[in-house]
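S.,

Sequence below, as promised.
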Amino acid sequence: MADLLRKPVAEQGKIHDITPQSANWSYVGFGLYKLKAGEMANETSGDNEVILVLVEGKAKITAGGKDFGELGERMNVFERIAPHCLFVPSMSDWDAIATTDCVLAVCTAPAQKDTKFVREAKVIGPDNINLETRGQGANTRYIHNIAMENRDIADSLLVTEVYTPQGNWSSYPPHRHDEDDYPNMTYLEETYYHRLNPSQGFGVQRVYTDDGSLDETMAVSDGDVVLVPKGYHPCGAPYGYEMYYLNVMAGPKRKWRFKNHPDHDWIYQRDSAN
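The prediction came back faster than expected:
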């Protein structure tokens, strides 16, 4: 069985610490801090660029020698209001002091060598992050595009949030982005940080390839992370439970180009025509 489902390693502090080495890939890193008011998290970006996402709660953050003061507004992720986020360039220190109980996501990917020391630390959200609707019927979900390719924010990182209503599917029709064949497709590794509302619920995510060399279906609980190294990766929310996930993607190009599974592409084509 592939080691794709990652459970929190603690109840407080740094509860996820996924690196390219631990994921057995090359680009994406994902960390998650769960802090009580007054607690601190700090790291050095090194050769990576970082996007900090205040999933819940508030914190005073400094990065790259700048004091950004208190950031955060959303106290519960399912409020669906836009998040406060911060870009941290390579070769920079950052620290966060929780001013309320908070959940802080640390999204990382390699910075391009020719832009090191060029980008500066800056706030990303909540301005210009709108809740967008994607899909139709039981395929409807709601998106916060934090740092997709239409925003010149980073060298490698692509970051987005998705809310999937109860009973709906998401990342569907099944699609993949596991070949470096731009403009037809881009190679992007991806993590899914899942939350469920109410929290005792579960969701389902399948990760599979055309040749069947990878085919894993996982029940995800509140706080789990799923790794997507390749293949298709749809997920669903059972009746009674709303699903949230935070996506981090990165690869050789900061472009999101994918192909739907040929058996199910007709759904995308039909919905696009309507």
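The helical segments are 20-23, 265-273.

Coffee later?
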